[in-house]
Structures are given as C-alpha cells and as structure tokens.
Amino acid sequence: MGNIPEGGLITNEAFREIFQSMSEGIIMVDTRGRIVVANPMAEQLFGYGTDALTGLMLEDLLPQRYRGGHVHFRSAFNSNPFPRRMGVGRDLTALRQDGSEFPVEISLSFTKVKGELLVMAFISDISLRKKTEDALKRSEEQLIVYAAELEKKVEMRTEALNHTILKLEDEVNERKKAEEEVRKSLEKERELNELKTKFVSIASHEFRTPLSTVLSSASLIDQYNDRGEPDKIHKHVQRIKSSVNQLTGILNDFLSLGKLEEGREDVVHEVIYPKEFLDEIEEEISGFLKEGQHLVLDCRMEASEIVCDARILRNILFNLITNASKYSDVNKPIYITCMNNGPFVNFEVRDEGIGIPLEDQKHMFDRFFRASNAGNVQGTGLGLNIVKRYIDLLKGTISFTSEYGKGTRFIVAIPISTNDQPK
C-alpha cells in the first residue's frame, strides 16, 4: 500500500484505503518532529517519491526562515495537544523538494499509538485560492479594505478570547485555599472545560458554512469579473458581508460570555431617552433584517428619560430583535413597545415567527441551548443566556410567552433609575 507499511501504524484495511485516497495531504510525526508516515497526496504536494518523506524532519518541509520558530511551536503543541487550525490569521508557506514554495492550509490533530503521541497534520495546497483572492483584491478595492479590517478584528478577538479563558483558569487555581473553595474551583474548572468543548464544536460547525460561502463567492466573483457581470459580483459581495457578520456575531457572543464569567462587565449609569434610543436602534439594525422586515415602534413612556447603561440595554434589545428577525419569515414586522410599569420600564419585542415549542421553553436561557425547531438557522445558543445575565446586572427581569408557529413576545423590565437599586 505505498508508503503505509503492512502491520505498521495503520493496520485496518478500510482505514488504510481511506488514508491512501484522501484528497488532502496527511503527515504523521512523532514528538521529535520526525515523519513516520505520509499519504500519497502529501508526497505529491511536496514533490517527493513514494516513501521519500518517511524519516525526514517536519522542518525540512518549511522554508529556512521559519524552521527555528516552528520547533518552538511544535514543542508547545506536544505539551498541550488539541485539534486546531495552524497559523490562524497568517499565511502559511511550505517547501517542495525542488526548493519552490507554495501556500498551504493546515489543521492539526493527534493520536496515540502504543503510548506514543503522534501529531497529524492535514495539509491543503491553497495556491488556487490565493490566486483568486489576489484577483479579487485587484478588482475590488473596497473589499480589500473590508477583508483587512475583518482579519484584524478576528485576530484581536481570538487573542482576547484566549486571554479570557487562560485568565479564568488561573483564577480557578488561585481559589484552592480551603475545602469549600476547592469544591467550587473544581466545579468552575468543569464548566470551563465544557465551555472549551462547546466552543470547539460550535466554532467548527458554525464557522464552516460562512467560510465556505466566502470562498465560493470569492471564486465566483473572479469569474463574473472576467465576464463583466457587475450585478452578480454585487450579489456575492453581499453574501460575503453577510457571512462576515455571522462570524462576528459568534465571536461577540463568546467575548461577551468571557467578560460576564470574569465579572468584568460594570454598569455605567447614564441618562437615556427611550424614544430617541429606540429610533437609533431601528436605524442601526435595519441592515441586519431580512427582506421586507421592519420594526414597528410604540413608545408610551410617561417619563421622557431613564437612568441605565445604554451599551448593555442596546445589546439586550439588539439580541432580541435579531432573534425575532432570524426566526421570522421575510416581510414580517417586528413590534417594539416601551411603557411604564411602576418603578420599571417595560421593553417588549414581539414577532410573528416560528414560535418556541412548549417542551423547549424551560431551557431557553440555558447556555448553548437551541430550540428543537431552530433548523438550519445559525446560532451559538448563547444569545439569550447572555441577555439574561445582562438583565441581572441591571437588576431587571425578563419573561416571555410563545405559541408554536405563531410567534413570541419577550418582556424586559428595567428599573427607570438603576441608581436607586440595591447593589
């Protein structure tokens, strides 16, 4: 079977057959970085003959300028292995046997064979994609700026999220001072591991669709540009922007959750004028609604102002309105009402969407929970959990009623003056 030795690392015939026929290059290395097996596609990508990769160091496949740094990265992965993409936000370059370089995309995983850690690298030649991206950059200057800003935001938010998780882990370790603190620390650690697992699962699933959309649209834009079809180019630029908004929303959910977990969300007391505030939200969110959808605002406040945290209140309403839009058909209105309720002001968000099944309603504020009828609508299952925690910070309440297939009404009650509430 080529470079897969009989009775060696891969003994199952079906698995060996899959390994041999994969369209991605696959290389397995030991903890020293030495290649122990590679599939034919990997040999083809790097320009080596059958079994010629076996025994080489992984750094032999990298340009000389990257080899020193990569030894450090490899050591760090061996000490804390977990499945991930390699070089997020950076261009990765590999070296063929003939000395030429080519761009690659690499995903890392690991396994153990007879107690020894083996790292698996899944490698794809993305030269065609790079050519497509370069062509797109030359023809769409505005898209270049947008893509550059997106890349920077993704890097910053990914770094912030990693920092948040590491900081939470450090705090868990520091709380082990007494038996009760140990119990609480262990529980916190379990929750963090669950969060990481959920994040990897959701990120791999939720990122795949919009990223595939970006890639396919970018390829089609290049074709339509050659044919001189600006209408179709505009359509796919809009698809790319929509996919970017989906990715940004996912990252914002995880960053918000991290801040709430750390207790780093402070309430800022400021004067808000509800009617003007809702008008601003309507203007801001209009670009995120489906075709034909619009907000119907009805502000019945007796008082002209309230004292609250505008950023937190905006995030609460923005999340509820976005959900109403996602789970409603095109051309369906979304009703927003604000009115006095004693020392509180009620903000109601009502839609005519798919509703929430009765058996799911008790779980709607649970972390990572999604209703059984959510279907293919994208989401992390974090939005309402974050909304509930924001409302708790404001000393408010949230409730809802829903009828399956007919719509949902959320009611948020916020103190007219958060200054008057006990801390």
UniProtKB/TrEMBL annotation:
It comes from the Bacteria. Its EC number is 2.7.13.3. Transmembrane segments: none annotated. It is an enzyme of class 2 (transferase). Residues 11-55 form the PAS domain. It catalyses: ATP + protein L-histidine = ADP + protein N-phospho-L-histidine. It comes from Chryseolinea lacunae. The keyword Oxidoreductase does not apply. Residues 129-198 form a coiled coil. This is histidine kinase. SUPFAM superfamilies: ATPase domain of HSP90 chaperone/DNA topoisomerase II/histidine kinase, Homodimeric domain of signal transducing histidine kinase, PYP-like sensor domain (PAS domain). Residues 202-418 form the Histidine kinase domain. Keywords: Coiled coil, Kinase, Phosphoprotein, Transferase, Two-component regulatory system.
